[in-house]
Structures are given as structure tokens and as C-alpha cells.
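Morning F.,

Quick status update on the modeling queue. The single chain you submitted on Monday has been processed. Sequence for confirmation:
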Amino acid sequence: MQQLLPLLLDWLSESPDPDQGLVGLRTLAGAPHRRDLLVTAFRESPEVARRLCLLLGTSRRLGEIIARHPDFVELLDDRAALTALEPDELVQNAMIAADQGPYRRPGALRHFFETETVRIAARDLLDLSSLHETGRALANLGAAVVAAGLHAVAPGVPMAVIGMGSFGGAEIAYGSDLDVLLVYEGTTASDMQAAEHAASALFRLCNGSTPAEGIVRIDASLRPEGRQGPLARSLDAFERYHRRWGETWERQALLRARPVAGNEAVVERFVALADQAVWSSPLDETAEREIRRMKARIERERIPPSDDPQFHLKLGRGSLADVEWTAQLLQLRTGTRATGTRDALDLLERAGALDATDAGALREAYGFCARTRNRWHLVGSYVAGAGGVVGSGADAMPRQPQLQSRLARSLGTTPTELRESYRRVTRRSRKVVERVFYGL
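C-alpha cells below.
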């Protein structure tokens, strides 16, 4: 360790927050069993030490997870061990954790979720995976936890979980909520009671009674009738609702619906009902105006006062929401089926609904904002606020110069260059949005 110390300090100096990395390294070396593990791993492979310094100096939250699961350090030199697990393997491992019994289950699932999150983050920070691969890996991990949770609560009726929003599109960021719909097969009052009981149990298991006890946060606010409706909806009720009262925004939301867990027969019938709700009639001018009005209202009202509206990665002009809504409007107009925004842009360009220049501008802005937001979720852990893998306020670039520097260093640039890049790509994207989405 004495021989490696100059190298360790040098590697830490190259991380976004060297002081944080040094504290993390000291914490890891504070317990005898962890110190012995570090000495052995560093002696056998200095590359492990370099990679660990990068992780610890990037995210305090990652450092805390590694301190709880120090065996992960040994995997940092093994590219095969860092490789993303297939969805079926993730589900199998999550099921093993869920079968630990009611008292050990939450801790076992949390252990599984945390170690897999660090594996994904390590690949991301070491440039071993692309932004698209990272988002899909995080979505697969969330789906595995939800599948294991549904298995654990053992619903008394056939039930399925449908991913919505960025979860459905497999484009989520670290610490994102998982938007879901819960649907079941049944017609009686007892079926409804059993489904609601299972849904409540699933929420308690995944969300925990406090943020610290939660595994991953699931959110069913996109369900019919929103937060006022039941947590789980029968397939018959789902069909009646969308036939009689379904609104345009709900039709738009179903574009990103993707089954992630549950009974195959329920999944098959839901897919047919969702297709009917979305594609049974063409998008008329009234519906298009409604979508535009809703988007304009979001631009006016949804950015929190604490966030910087000039550099908002999710709701700013030309940023993520602009690209997503433009793609979704064109999808509904042209019948283009895709749950992910990137896939939708590719299909729309291929179909001639977007020319190559416009598609390129939207794709560039979406990739830049998604990558920066994802990285700020890691770098801003426990800085912008507490909770989950990330702190609050991760949807906008930080205002504080010190935090701007950390984020920029993590992305291999400077704060000035990062902000200028944001202005450049979102300005080009917004011009496309104003012409294609708003019709200006």
C-alpha cells in the first residue's frame, strides 16, 4: 500500500472529486477484513486500484455500496464479471433473493439490486457500455426486481406488471422511479380485493416504508384515473375505461407500455387491448391540439423553482421531453410503433416522417441530455439531496461552480464547454420541435 500510495493519489486526482474518493478509500481500508481484501486485490492488479479510485471519486453512493459489499472490488479487473447479465439470469437471481423468506427478503433483494447497480455503473464509468446499453441494463434490473416482488407477494389472481414511461422504453437513469401499470384477470369483488392486496404488498416491498428501506421505487400514477384510481385494474375495466373515457394523454402514454413481469395470458390480452386503445382510430386535429396544449402547459408549470430552467436536462427547451413528445406525436400520426424514443426516431426517419437532418438534431440533443442527466445522477449522489441511488434535483445541471466542475470532469470536459454544448444541441433541437411538433 505504501508503494501504491503515490499512484493512488494520482488516480484519485483524475476523478471528479478526489477528496471524496480519498475518504471512500479510507473507509474501505478502515476495517481489517476489507483492508486485507484491498491489499490483495491491489497487489495482484494495479488496474483494480485505478478503477476503484475512479468509482469512489465519482459517486459517494457507489462508495457506500462497495463498502457494504467489498467483494465487488475483486471483479473490477475481470471484464467478463462486469458484463451485463441477460434478463432471464437477472430474474433468476432476483427470484433467489425473493425466496429468502419474509424477514430476509427485503435485505436480500436490496443486496441484489445494489450490487447489480454498481456493476452497471462500473461499466458505464469505465466506458465499457454505451448510454443505450446502460439504460437497457437499468431497465432490465428494475424489471427483475419487480418480477421477483410479484412472485413473492403471490397474487391470488392472474396479474401482470406493465412498464410505462422511460421504464417501458428501457431508457431509465440511475435512481429513476419505475412507472408501472398493474393489470389482472378477474371480474368479481373478491378478485378485485385480491388484486389490490397484492398490489399494495408489491408497493410496500419495493418502495419500503422509508426511502432508506426501499429497494427501487415503483410509481403507478399513470394508471387510469391516476392517483385516485385503484392500484390494480382488471383487464375488462381497463378496456371499458379506454373505450369510454380514455383521454389523449393516456393514449400517448400507452405508446411506451411494455410488459415486464407476470402472467403470460394477462400480458397477451393487455397488449391486444393497448393496441386497440392506441391504434384503433387515427389522430385527428383536435387530439393533436390537445397534445400541443398539454406540452406547452408542462413547459410553463413543471420545472421546479430550485432547478435552473436554462439548463434543464429533462424539461428545458430542446431537451429530453421536447424530443420525446415530438417523436410520440409523429408516432401517433404515422402509426409508428416503438416504446423507446431512440428506436422511434430511427423508425420515423426510415419511414420518411422525419428528414435526416431533423432526426439527427433530435437524436443528438436526446443523447447529450440523457448522458449528462445520467452522469449527474451518479455524481450528484447525496449532494443535491438524499434518497435512493441519487439525490433530488438531478434533472437540471447544477448551479454551483464546484458541482458543475465535478459533473464536467466526469464527462471529460469543462463546465464552460458543457454548458455551451447544451446550448448548441438544444437550440438545434428546439428549432425542429417548434417546426415539427408545434407547426410554427
